[in-house]
Amino acid sequence: MGTMDAILLQILNGLDKGSAYALIALGLTLIFGTLGVVNFAHGALFMIGAFCAVMLQRILNLSFQTIDETQKDFLGNPLKVDTPYVHSWFGPETGAAIIDWSVPLAVIFAIPIMLFIGYAMERGLIKHFYKRPHADQILVTFGLAIVLQEIIKYFFGANPIQTPEPSALKGSLDIGLMLGFDPNAIIYPIWRLVYFAFAAVIIGGVFAFLQFTTFGMVVRAGMADRETVGLLGINIDKRFTIMFGIAAGVAGLAGVMYGPLNPPNYHMGMDFLVLSFVVVVVGGMGSLPGAVAAGFLLGVLESFASTTWATTTIPGINQIIIYLVAIIILLTRPRGLLGRKGVMED
């Protein structure tokens, strides 16, 4: 593989990983920017989203037994076979297609679930900690994350659960050939490209919602000066509660589509949580563009640090590169890349 081929491949790997970082960090920043809450349970929302895909997959595979006259046991008797209910409802071909596309369909399935969980979390717990110190917020939300993690472990077990992508989206594409390189120079999995495109759509949708809708404009005004917006007679608290639900939805959808890349397990939220907070801090606390930019930047850097050359030259660099970059950025720009003055500086 040539130098340019290798560089492009690592950039693709970085954008793929950075997509997950950016989506989770975007939701974290939405919550912090609107409510001022440091939500350590946000990684658990990512995990719950992934298990929404697992849940839908199991629902679609619910079956009943029927007698198949075309199959015989060793005694010549007809065999009993398990037939999914969706096969009987929609026909074998359509039913099989629905099961095959269970992960993309789980996006629709997860939206109301994540919105409800986000609303319940904010109304039932988070609202009581708005005026409490950030240390209290961290402790209570971290405890909530552990509780949610153990609930998932109880119902789904401790082992990772496969949630395969649709058959049509399995395999790889010859990206290099499309870009004018030699055949087979850059072969990349289709689902990773789908995940990056999905992340781009979600991120673009959130920014468009905040930028071009009346609701979003009021929320941005409330983020800048909550007291003044409240004095205008606008119920900004209700809008911020809705934003908490949207942030939960963003994290959940990121988890849904991440399942085929890394089989869901009960601790996947914690695995992403610390890295996502590093992304938020590097991007700048309260800065939505900063969170997204830092997510992709750190994802690309982590990808390059994972190459054989990098790990041979500096063993373990792939494990610490994000934290090294965070230290350097915060030493030179204490507010992060795009941080605002006055955020968490009192």
From TrEMBL:
Q: Name one GO molecular function term.
A: transmembrane transporter activity
Q: How does it sit in the membrane?
A: Multi-pass membrane protein
Looking at the UniProt entry, the stretches that span the membrane are 20-38, 98-117, 193-219, 240-261, 273-301, 313-331
Any one Gene Ontology cellular component term annotated for this protein: plasma membrane
Localization annotation: Cell membrane
Instruction: Name any Gene Ontology BP term.
Output: amino acid transport
Keywords assigned by UniProt? Amino-acid transport, Cell membrane, Membrane, Transmembrane, Transmembrane helix, Transport
InterPro entries with a match to the protein in the record: ABC_transp_permease, BCAA_transport_permease
Would the keyword Membrane be found if you checked this record's keyword annotation?
Answer: yes
Q: Name one Pfam family in it.
A: BPD_transp_2
PANTHER family in UniProt = ABC TRANSPORTER ATP-BINDING PROTEIN, BRANCHED-CHAIN AMINO ACID TRANSPORT SYSTEM PERMEASE PROTEIN LIVH
Q: Which family does it belong to?
A: Belongs to the binding-protein-dependent transport system permease family. LivHM subfamily.
Under what name is this protein listed?
Branched-chain amino acid ABC transporter, permease protein
Give the species this sequence originates from. Answer: Ruegeria pomeroyi (strain ATCC 700808 / DSM 15171 / DSS-3) (Silicibacter pomeroyi)
